[in-house]
Amino acid sequence: MTLKKPDSAPSPERSRVMRAVRSVDTRPEMIVRRLLHAMGYRYRLHRRDLPGAPDIVFPGRRRKLIFVHGCFWHGHDCARGARMPAANADYWRSKIARNIARDADHLAALRQAGWQALVIWECQLKVRDRPALTALLRAFLEDAAPPGAIPPAGET
């Protein structure tokens, strides 16, 4: 099997595809934001002054934040996250490993700064799972520690 070498100059088609990969206002993020808004919560978006620029932030007395992660990009252990591209596999393995390490560093820094974080994975957003997601979000925001929530430092 021969792998194609990347073009020295990206084609217009490659450029179009890569431009379509978004980092904010993604479909999974919008699902969570609409759900939170319908539940009556108000929040801030993408605080660049916090490590990892969390997708959804509840500042003030709550000091809670939510990351909405794509399973592939952040290396989740579900079917979608475990799928690895055949082309340039070494690059993608190392890229996703770096993303996982960076995410862990950001969560540790946020925890040390007194923030409580919740990571919502893309695979949790299926329509049939929405009641469970609603319960998870409500528990997280109403101080009942849901599974998967990362408490601030000193509260473990």
* Number of helical stretches of at least 4 residues: 5
User: Which class in CATH terms?
Assistant: Alpha Beta
* Low-confidence regions: none
Evaluate the radius of gyration. 18 Å
Q: Tally the structural domains.
A: 1
Largest sheet: 5 strands, mixed
Distance between the termini: 50 Å
- Series of secondary-structure elements, N-terminal to C-terminal: HHEEEHHEHE
- Strand line-up in the sheet with most strands: 1-2-3-4-5
What's the architecture, going by CATH?
Answer: 3-Layer(aba) Sandwich
Report on the architecture of this protein.
With 156 residues, the protein is α+β, with helices and mostly antiparallel strands. It has one domain: VSR Endonuclease (Endonuclease, Chain A). The chain contains five helices and five strands; from the N terminus they run ααβββααβαβ. A five-stranded mixed sheet has the order 1-2-3-4-5, with helices on both faces. It starts with 11 loop residues before the first helix and ends in a 6-residue tail after the last strand.
Task: Give descriptors for this structure.
156 residues, alpha+beta, Endonuclease, Chain A, 5-stranded mixed sheet
Give the structure's gist in a few sentences.
39% of the residues lie in helices and 12% in strands. The chain has helices spanning 12-20, 27-38, 79-82, 89-112, 130-141; strands at residues 44-45, 56-58, 64-69, 116-121, 149-150.
